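step=encode ok
step=design start
structure_in=
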């Protein structure tokens, strides 16, 4: 546990000392908020109202409120996976050799790196909550507190995915290219930025096996007051996620993310152990 804590503490310290990374983490979420929140809010709300026979259909719906939890989830995804890049950098600079010859087990090193990445990602997600009053949103404070443990769970699963790639890929350039190819489809086919219902069958299959889909759906169900939305709005915006014709519950989605996290943690630690044996 001391080894895990030491590695976790090192990643947290590096995050707070790197001011450019700390403030730069705001750039991508703010950009997406401006593009999808500010630029598309009127269009989406008008389309929603038109599909229901008038502007009244979208009167009780705020598109920025819909997209904000998805942007937080996108931040968790990108931060968790790209944090594993530090493993390749540590190999290049020789730090990994030093830590591998220490009495710390390789499994403890992998777990410490995953917990460090998950903590950093969760902190960045929480920092985004500061923007809530400035963009005209009013989430319930209890819902924000309730969503934080799930954010850490989701970030842990995604950091395991990043560690798995980092243990397989040897170069920084190869890691960045592979992860970018993986991350963007996961974001756009998750319902984070726009509804993903009524898609072609092959694309709908990808949506349903995408773990970010369930992570985004849980965060929206916790943060957004669904009782204040009509059933037509929830259906039009894909807030009634269903699998095989059956609507999934928050509990089932959390169990899925938990199982996904356990599997990824096991695979990542096994791969890390073999790669650095």
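sequence_out=
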């Amino acid at each position: 546990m001391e080894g895990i804590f030491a590695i976790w503490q090192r990643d947290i310290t590096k995050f707070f000392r790197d001011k450019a990374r700390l403030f730069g983490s705001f750039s991508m979420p703010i950009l997406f908020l401006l593009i999808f929140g500010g630029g598309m809010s009127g269009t989406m709300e008008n389309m929603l109202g038109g599909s229901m026979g008038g502007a009244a259909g979208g009167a009780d719906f705020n598109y920025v409120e819909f997209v904000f939890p998805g942007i937080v989830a996108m931040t968790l995804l990108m931060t968790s996976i790209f944090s594993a890049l530090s493993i390749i950098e540590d190999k290049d600079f020789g730090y990994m050799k030093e830590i591998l010859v220490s009495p710390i087990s390789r499994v403890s090193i992998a777990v410490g790196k995953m917990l460090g990445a998950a903590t950093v990602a969760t902190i960045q997600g929480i920092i985004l909550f500061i923007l809530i009053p400035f963009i005209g949103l009013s989430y319930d404070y209890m819902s924000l507190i309730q969503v934080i443990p799930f954010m850490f769970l989701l970030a842990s699963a995604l950091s395991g995915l990043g560690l798995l790639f980092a243990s397989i890929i040897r170069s920084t350039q190869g890691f960045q290219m592979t992860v970018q190819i993986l991350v963007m489809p996961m974001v756009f086919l998750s319902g984070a930025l726009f509804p993903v219902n009524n898609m072609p069958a092959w694309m709908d299959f990808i949506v349903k096996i995408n773990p970010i889909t369930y992570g985004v759906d849980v965060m929206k169900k916790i943060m957004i007051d669904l009782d204040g939305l009509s059933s037509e709005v929830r259906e039009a915006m894909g807030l009634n996620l269903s699998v095989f014709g059956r609507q999934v519950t928050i509990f089932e989605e959390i169990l899925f993310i938990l199982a996904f996290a356990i599997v990824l943690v096991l695979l990542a630690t096994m791969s890390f152990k073999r790669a650095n044996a």
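step=design ok
step=annotate ok -> The chain has one domain: 2-275.
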